[in-house]
Design a protein that fits this description.
This protein is mainly alpha-helical and 88 residues long. 80% of the residues lie in helices and 0% in strands. The chain has a single domain (2-87), classed as Serine Threonine Protein Phosphatase 5, Tetratricopeptide repeat, CATH 1.25.40. Helix 1 runs antiparallel to helix 2 (13-25), helix 3 (31-43) packs antiparallel against helix 4 and helix 4 packs antiparallel against helix 5 (65-87). The radius of gyration is 14 Å and the shape is globular.
Length: 88
C-alpha cells in the first residue's frame, strides 16, 4: 500500500488503480484494497465501478464501506436525473 499511497499523493490515480487491480488479480484479496479502489474510482468519476468495489469491501467485512456505497447510490441517482433532464 505504500506504493499506492505515493501514487495517490502525486494524483496519479490511474496508475494506482492499475497497480491495485493487478494485486487483486494475483490473489491478494483484502477488504481494504476494495475500499481504496472504490475511493480511487470515485475520484476519477467512475461512480458505478466505485459502487461495485465498495459493495465488495462490505462483503469482506469493511464496515466503513457501507457509507461510501450509499454515497455512490446517491451520486448515481443524481446523475440519472441530470441525464433525464438533458434528454428533454
Amino acid at each position: 500500500m505504500k506504493r499506492v499511497k505515493k501514487m495517490i499523493e502525486k494524483f496519479d490515480y490511474w496508475s494506482a488503480i492499475e497497480y491495485m487491480e493487478k494485486e487483486l488479480n494475483e490473489g491478494k484479496i483484502k477488504g481494504d484494497y476494495f475500499l481504496e479502489l472504490g475511493h480511487l474510482y470515485r475520484g476519477v468519476g467512475e461512480i458505478k465501478k466505485a459502487r461495485d468495489y465498495y459493495k465488495r469491501a462490505m462483503e469482506l467485512g469493511v464496515n466503513e464501506a457501507e457509507e461510501f456505497e450509499k454515497l455512490t447510490e446517491i451520486l448515481l441517482r443524481g446523475k440519472e436525473k441530470t441525464e433525464d433532464k438533458n434528454e428533454i
